[in-house]
Structure formats: C-alpha cells, structure tokens
Design brief:
The protein has helices spanning 59-71, 128-134, 138-146, 151-155; strands at residues 18-29, 32-39, 46-47, 50-51, 73-77, 83-90, 96-111, 123-127. It has 156 residues and is an alpha+beta fold. A hairpin with a 5-residue loop joins strand 6 (83-90) and strand 7 (96-111). Helix 2 (128-134) runs antiparallel to helix 3. The protein is globular.
Length: 156
Amino acid sequence: MVTQLPISLHGGAKGSARTQFAGLCWRVRRGKVQILLITSRRRKRWIVPKGWPMEGKTPAECALTEAWEEAGVIGIASDACIGVYSYARVREGNDSLPCLAMLYPLQVKSLQNDFPEMRQRRRKWVSRKKAARMVDHIELKKLILGFTPPVQALAA
C-alpha cells in the first residue's frame, strides 16, 4: 500500500489546478521490474510521460497516447489509477500552473524508434529504486517505489 502525501497547489488557488494523465511505463526483465523514464523537453529533468485530457478518451488512454508521443511506447494501459502527484508546470514567461497528475500503469510491449518527440527527449530503463532517485517529485517517487505489477506479469 502506498502512503499518500498531501498535495500542493504550488501557490495557486484551488480553482486554478489542472489535471493531467501520466503513464508509469514498466516491464519485467529477468524477474525485475523496470521503469521507463524520459527527459522533459526544456529542462531535461527525468519524468514520466504525461499530458492533458483528450476528447473521447479515457484517462488511461490519454496516458498511453502521451507515452507513445513522448517515448514511442506500444503497450497496455491499466484503467486503475495508482495515485496522484502534484507539481508546478513552468510556462513561458516563468509563471507556473499548479497541476495534479493521475498516474496509470502502462505495460510496455515494445518501444518504437520513430515517434513524434524522438528528437526532443531521451528515454531510459531503470529499476524502481533508481527511477525514484531520478525524478524530482516526492509523491511520484513514492508511487514508483510502491508500484507492484500484476502477479501474472511477474511470472511471464
């Protein structure tokens, strides 16, 4: 069970927070869970793929679409949100927008080398512990460390 932390609105009013859908991209190699991290476009920090709601798509489908666009992920999305993390999205002009990202597990079946943002980001497979050290957001660190894939995925 993951311990939930209080969210931060990063100085914004409660009505100004925006929701995004994020994907925790994972696979099992040699019996160990690995997490796929990508770099942000501007600041090159290690993050998970995420983006805004899309008309006609479920939150999990949005997360999977973002994972394709940002990391070339082909996979299976779980409809079960495993948690929420908060962060301040820095916009042009250096103002920030408080965001809440709902995190959905995405089992990666393959990675494509030709994807929309391939020239803007790096991607890297790492252990859960290393992924938690690499990301900045405390809530995201805890969600990564607390993630356990379905038992059938570990047996495969």
